[in-house]
Amino acid sequence: MRQLSRYAISLAVAGSCLVATLPTEAPAQGATAGASINQGVRNARSLIRQANRLADALGEAPCDFILRNNILEQSERMLDQLWDLMQAAELAGATGLAEDLDAAGQNLADAREYYDEECGGPSRVGVLSSGIFARKFVEIDIAAGGIQAVLPNRTFLGSESGGVPRTGLFATDRDATGASVSASLKFDTSGLLSVPLNFGSGTSSSWTKLGFFYAHASSDQTIGTIDVGAGSQILVPGPLGGASGFAFPLGAPAQGVTYSNDLSKAGGRVDFGQTTRLPNNLSVDLYGSLGYARTSFDERFSGTISGLNFRYDSDAHVDQMKLRLGAGLRKEIALQGGLTFSYGGYGEIGPDFSWGSGRDRLSVTGFADSSTSPSAARTAPGYRLGLTAGVQTSAGFKLSLEGAYMRESALPVFDRDGNNPTRLELKSGDVWTGMVRGSLRF
Length: 442
What we know:
The protein is built from five helices and 15 strands. With 442 residues, the chain is α+β, with helices and mostly antiparallel strands. The longest helix is centred in the N-terminal third of the chain and has 31 residues, at 30-60. The radius of gyration is 34 Å and the shape is elongated. Mean pLDDT is 84; it is low at 1-33 and 121-135.
């Protein structure tokens, strides 16, 4: 068995083994000696089982998991204890037990050598070689969950009373719900990209991540009757303004009114970042990203006034480039059975460059449809804040929960004032997500 340079002798365990294996001289001490023998053997066998578990972890677990959970330090202490117990067993004449301790120690020493080869060279307790703290890795991530969106305010119809027209008669429900899925591929780039920032005693590596996502949310609202009273009339502004709209008789209500919309967004991004692992099992992530997304939106507002059916059909497509700077903090806690519990949070912020176009169309029974195709552009800040918690196995599989809030900066809104053609505006809204995330690192 290879002996390391330090001898952290466990006197209690070694003494127990000696007592357990040396013969006794006084018959009156037989019961005590028998108990000591059994306890010493149990202690030695327990130590052998612990050593075998450490060897399995060194041979199978990812390098960063080994470092996070202090398995290197544990293995060195274990080698010292096995060596001391083996010598004690040999002195006591317990040859079989000494051979088992020697075999367990050799197995653990071999696992340490395998770790040194796979994870960047020889490592001693508390010492990392050449700033490399983990083997090259690839991580695959898939997530799915629900979303709750609060869309920008949007209004329909108008009214006229005493010769004074007003728009924005009815405001629709702003809430929309749906689902989201995402996937990413993350890989170590320490050999290609240098780490821009170093934190004291922490060890850092660089990485790149490619991500893709799709989200969909919708809303259906049954409104019923919109009544402006006997002395007013309902106005239906037209997409082209002026004469493309309609004014209905005094007191005529809008009946059977419904509203629905569909919002979908798909895109991808590339992140360049670094992770710094601190001695207290804290990890700090710093990253920057460039992303592209395309938003599709359509809405329908319809009803009946004075026996005539009316319907707005509107749709828009918005392209968006996103720049982000982000930071994350994560705490890891080692559990039994090779599991690691982690929790943390992150935040990112940056400018969104958006441009889009759409079509607004009005249909009224007995009249030709009218439509227009407005466009818009906007530059505005966007940001995202999130919390995560999950459990990872020694094999590199992690299951986690994530909750996040996003400020969306380019949600399309059609503005109709009754005098001018419909304008397309890009406005901000709020989105909350709850995701279940599974990832595998190898």
